[in-house]
């Protein structure tokens, strides 16, 4: 799959650390939820400070490929514009689509790669590094990394002892966002356990509101559902083994996790639009369903990462911390799961402008630009928390940074892209089929294992 270097070490932590991060996440998600501080002050001005030395690049062009579109794309463009202002360079941002590996692979093999790419998967970073497609970071960027990032995040951007990636954007992917009005009307509160979560969903359904909005039209959402259930239930050691395909997807632990997930997916009245509706719902729509009304929304809750905040802020009238609240993914086993994701910037061309852009992305200055817009958290430990637009986002980010090196990275993002990151294939397809027919646990396991065996072998 990928080299057994620092990339895997950051994920290989113990259960004690998991508990500590879970406690931090609980504070982050629920504390100070009544605040909607717009982040004025030192955090806001941090985006305007010259926190990193950059060369003058007037007349130079930097082509950057990234998966982000819509609001995320607009916010990343603001980061690029800040770099242009500082250096005089011209940045062109090109969307890759969901299949980043295929898009970039065709560009590279065709002799026309972008200067910089944002990779949302550790597995792809390692695959590209092994093929010799990535350029090692220069000294200026590595200096910024050592100053601003914990060793765990640095390790995630390395392969075979060489540093290639800057984790500019991170994600806390173990959160339940809920409509406070719908919960209040149904008489339910934040669930600490999976059992209570399913029970609450039934109570919400009985109140006349569909309980859980699932963006099953996007396969990656379903991988996140599975991973949170699996990590909490099977534990960190099993999680790490399955992530590296050291145990098969036909393992009893996978059966147990799918069976648990079927307690929710197997009751169509618990899903907004039922199973068919969930399969036809993309991620952004799954968020708006939960917050399209403060009294009788299309759904009472939605699961996903901190980035849900940008959809809530831009696509609904709900106020984060008031109408839209958040709590940690409920514990299935003894501990609540804590899973992170992230996007790493890498250089595909060895030129001055590409390296300068990576150096900029490794600075607090660049992170502050997007942080102010919302829907973003950074593992940059020197980013001023005041840059975040509200207390909820600020405390989620604080918990991520406070975790240091103790976290589990998204499992599907560690896998080869053919298995963990391709639309209509591999894990995405198998879990969508499972959402369609949650009774077929054995068939889902067989499909997952067949796809994994092929992808990891290749």
UniProtKB/TrEMBL annotation:
Location of region: Disordered: 31-52
Family statement: Belongs to the bacterial solute-binding protein 1 family.
PROSITE patterns (UniProt xref): PROKAR_LIPOPROTEIN
Protein name listed in UniProt: Sugar ABC transporter substrate-binding protein
Keyword terms: Signal, Transport
Native source species: Streptomyces nanshensis
UniProt signal peptide: 1-28
The organism's place on the tree of life at top rank: Bacteria
């Amino acid at each position: 799959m990928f080299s057994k270097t620092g990339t895997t070490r950051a994920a290989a932590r113990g259960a004690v650390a998991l508990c500590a991060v879970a406690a931090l996440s609980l504070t982050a998600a629920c504390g100070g939820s009544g605040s909607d501080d717009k982040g004025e002050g030192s955090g806001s001005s941090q985006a305007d400070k010259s926190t990193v030395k950059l060369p003058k690049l007037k007349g130079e062009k930097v082509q950057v490929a990234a998966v982000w579109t819509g609001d995320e794309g607009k916010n990343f463009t603001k980061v690029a514009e800040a770099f242009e202002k500082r250096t005089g360079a011209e940045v062109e941002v090109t969307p890759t689509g969901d299949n980043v590996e295929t898009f970039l692979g065709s560009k590279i093999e065709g002799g026309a790669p972008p200067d910089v790419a944002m990779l949302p998967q550790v597995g792809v970073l390692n695959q590209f590094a092994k093929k010799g497609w990535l350029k090692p970071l220069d000294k200026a960027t590595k200096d910024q990394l050592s100053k601003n990032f914990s060793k765990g995040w640095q390790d995630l951007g390395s392969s075979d002892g060489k540093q290639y990636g800057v984790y500019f954007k991170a994600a806390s992917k173990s959160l339940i966002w809920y409509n406070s009005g719908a919960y209040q009307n149904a008489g339910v509160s934040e669930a600490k356990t999976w059992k209570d979560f399913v029970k609450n969903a039934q109570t919400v359904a009985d109140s006349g509101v569909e309980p859980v909005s699932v963006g099953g039209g996007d396969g990656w959402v379903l991988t996140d559902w599975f991973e949170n259930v699996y990590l909490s239930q099977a534990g960190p050691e099993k999680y790490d083994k399955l992530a590296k395909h050291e145990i098969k997807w036909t393992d009893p632990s996978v059966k147990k996790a799918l069976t648990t997930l079927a307690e929710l997916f197997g009751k169509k009245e618990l899903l907004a639009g039922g199973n068919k509706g969930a399969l036809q719902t993309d991620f952004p729509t799954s968020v708006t369903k939960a917050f399209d009304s403060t009294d009788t929304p299309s759904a009472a809750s939605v699961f996903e990462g901190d980035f849900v905040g940008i959809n809530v802020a831009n696509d609904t009238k709900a106020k984060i911390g008031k109408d839209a609240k958040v709590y940690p993914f409920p514990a299935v086993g003894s501990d609540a799961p804590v899973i992170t994701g992230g996007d790493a910037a890498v250089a595909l061309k060895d030129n001055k402008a590409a390296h300068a852009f990576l150096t900029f992305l490794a600075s607090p200055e660049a992170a502050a630009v997007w942080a102010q817009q919302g829907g973003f958290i950074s593992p940059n430990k020197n980013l001023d928390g005041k840059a975040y637009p509200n207390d909820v986002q600020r405390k989620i980010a604080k918990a991520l940074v406070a975790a240091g090196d103790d976290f589990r990275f998204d499992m599907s993002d560690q896998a080869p892209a053919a298995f963990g990151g391709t639309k209509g294939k591999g894990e995405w397809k198998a879990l969508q089929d499972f959402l369609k027919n949650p009774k077929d646990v054995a068939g889902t396991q067989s499909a997952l294992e067949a796809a994994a065996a092929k992808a990891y072998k290749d």
